[in-house]
# Entry
Amino acid sequence: MVKTTDELALMRVSGRLLASVFEMLDRRDLAGMSTLQINDLVERFITVDLSARPASKGQYGFRFVLNSSINQVVCHGVPDADEIVRDGDIVNLDITLEKNGFIADSSKTYVVGTVRPATRRLVQVAQEAMWQGIRQVRPGAHVGDIGHAIDRYAKKNGYSVVREFCGHGIGREMHEAPEVLNFGRPGTGARLREGMVFTVEPMINQGSRKVFTRDDGWTVVTSDGKLSAQFEHTVAVTANGVEVLTLRTGETPGRALAA
# Structure
């Protein structure tokens, strides 16, 4: 769905506010916190400090404001008071925010304390895979160009790409057209037009791309128990290319920070 100039201006506001949520988290030591404590911290920040709405809460019956996915959890991890983030973990925090009727969506995989070099490399590659996809965004390109770039980069580095979940259009609704797959063939899929807004959000696995959902109906984990990492930004197609609406202060497009 193509956004008007006024709608895009409002989406920039939502994106900037969501970026500030991650900037707040960047200043926190997550080690020793429960994933429910992180959820509650984010909820207070969004509702009190930003006077915005956590868009995920109540969406599809979900009771929390974020997904917290630790280590082998691929996505949709459910915050829990008994789940503690520990030194050596990686944890993806996937957060949405609505302001003035428009939603932004972003996620980051945090490296907690001292991790193994192989773990850090996975996170770095996952972040760069996202940027590889974002670099394809311009008027006249296709969503298949994005997926192809992501998949090629991940495989070149020895990793697999989860296929069951993908990026999506976003605006007044959390999920709009088009679907933005993390694999594909160049020149296929929806053609990108100026004013389109969507997420790019690859999930990169250390081992097999196969996943399964736990009995809670939400938590998706790797089938082989190996690690998974994800990064996500909300982007807009501009006349000259792409604008990252959820870009954080100090974040350099295309450079993996892995922190």
